[in-house]
Structures are given as C-alpha cells and as structure tokens.
C-alpha cells in the first residue's frame, strides 16, 4: 500500500499552515509561511480533490483570524486577494502532477524539488503580479519598478516553500521506512 495523507492525515498540513501563516518570511519569533508547501504537499499526497477547496477556505479563515484577532496588518487585503486561488491552485496542481514521480527514487526527489521550486516561482508571479495590477496600491508605480522592488523577496518566498516541501517528502519517506521496518505494508 502506498503511504498517502488522506482525511485524518491532512490535519498536520492544516496545523502547519495555521502555525506559520502569520508572517510570509518569518521573524525572530515565527517560522516562514508554509502555505505554498502545504498546498503542494496536499496535491501530492491527498487523494481527495475537495481538499483544495478546504485548504483555500482554511487559508481565508486563518487570514481573517490573524487580522481581526491578532492585529496582523491587513495590507494584503485588496481586490487582488482573490488571486490567491490561482496562486495556491498552481502549486497544488504541481503536487498532483508530481505523483507520477513518487516511485522514481533519487531522480524522483530531484524532480519533486525542481517542480516545487518551479510552481512556487509561478505562484510568486501570480500573487505579486495580481497585487500590482488589482490592489490599487501601486497606481503610480511603473511595473518594472514594482517588479524590481518585489524581486528581493523571491529567494525567501521560493526557498521557504521548497524547504518545507523537501521536509515533507523526508517525513513521508521516513514514515514509509519505519512502517516497513515494523512489519507493516511497504510505503512510498
């Protein structure tokens, strides 16, 4: 049996998103946002497609709570907020696509990592491009200047997503090895 994260096992992904969603890049007291990796890993390991919608709702509720209960800035709340749907769908779909590489050994890990990075890059363009175009906050700034300004955040944005995704791969692989070692069905 292949190890998959289904209904009850999605809870760790939701918990990770809840624990890290307060700040995009982290701080001295918080970890970087793991939302991109959560959507990627859910696409990879969760078989029910409905969890994409569930995770989108959870992300929205977490943002609502962060802003209204924990005094997190509402700077990103704008008409562009709806573009988080295609942002997260892009990484989720990349995770779904990566299912075909699960049995490819080390090459599979390289492909999974590369596709996590590529999909996080696409997510960066969607989220930042839509914020520029639809937030109403940069009406007088040329797109080139905005692009140069936000490009400084690209390494941390993609790096955090890839780091969490690789950690997720490692946890699932270790769980599969542990399950096989204790005589349960072989996993992943």
What order do the helices and strands come in, and which of them pair?
Elements: H1 10-20, H2 35-45, H3 50-69, H4 84-98, H5 105-134, H6 143-150, H7 154-181
SS content category: mainly alpha
Following the backbone from N to C, one meets helices and strands in this order, namely HHHHHHH
Q: What value does the average pLDDT take?
A: 87
Number of strands: 0
How would you describe the shape? globular
* Strand residue percentage: under 5%
**Low-pLDDT sequence parts:** 1-5
Give the CA-CA distance, first to last residue: 8 Å
- What composes the largest sheet? none
Q: What is the number of helices? A: 7
What percent of the residues sit in helical stretches (DSSP H or I)?
Answer: 55-70%
Question: In oligomeric terms, what are we looking at?
Answer: single chain
What does this structure look like?
The chain has helices at 10-20, 35-45, 50-69, 84-98, 105-134, 143-150, 154-181. By secondary structure, the protein is mainly alpha-helical. α2 (35-45) packs antiparallel against α3 and α2 packs across α7 (154-181). The longest helix has 30 residues, at 105-134. The radius of gyration is 17 Å and the shape is globular.
Descriptive keywords:
188 residues, mainly alpha, 7 helices, globular
What's the gist of this structure?
The protein contains seven helices and no strands.
């Amino acid at each position: 049996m292949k190890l998959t994260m289904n209904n009850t096992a999605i809870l760790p992904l939701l918990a990770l998103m809840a624990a890290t969603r307060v700040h995009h890049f982290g701080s001295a007291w918080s970890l970087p946002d793991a939302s991109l990796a959560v959507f990627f890993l859910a696409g990879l390991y969760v078989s029910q497609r409905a969890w994409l919608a569930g995770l989108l709702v959870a992300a929205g509720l977490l943002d609502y709570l962060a802003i209204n209960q924990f005094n997190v800035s509402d700077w990103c709340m704008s008409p562009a907020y709806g573009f988080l749907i295609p942002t997260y769908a892009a990484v989720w779909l990349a995770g779904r696509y990566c299912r075909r590489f699960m049995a490819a050994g080390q090459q599979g890990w390289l492909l999974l990592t590369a596709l996590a990075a590529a999909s996080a890059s696409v997510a960066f363009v969607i989220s930042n491009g839509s914020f520029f175009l639809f937030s109403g906050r940069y009406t007088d700034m040329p797109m080139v200047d905005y692009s140069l300004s936000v490009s400084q955040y690209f390494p941390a944005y993609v790096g955090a997503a890839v780091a969490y995704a690789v950690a997720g791969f490692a946890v699932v692989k270790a769980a599969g090895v542990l399950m096989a070692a204790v005589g349960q069905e072989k996993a992943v």
